[in-house]
Amino acid sequence: MKLIELDMRRSQELVSLWNQELGQLFPMRRALFEQNSFADENVCHASSRIAVDHNGKLIGFVVVKRWQEQIDVGMDPEKGWIQAILVDASYRHQGIGKALLNNAEHALSLMGIKEIWLGRDPWHYFPGIPKEYEQVAKWFKMKGYLQQGFDYDMLCTYDISDRITVQEHFGIEFSVLNIAEKEDLLKFMHRCFPGRWEYETIKYFQKGGTGREFVVLKKDNRIIGFCRINDDLTPIISQNVYWAPLFDEKLGGVGPLGIDATERKRGFGLEIVKAGIAELRKRHIQRIVIDWTGLVDFYGKLGFDVWKTYQSYKKTIS
Question: What is the pTM of this model?
Answer without folding.
Answer: 0.94
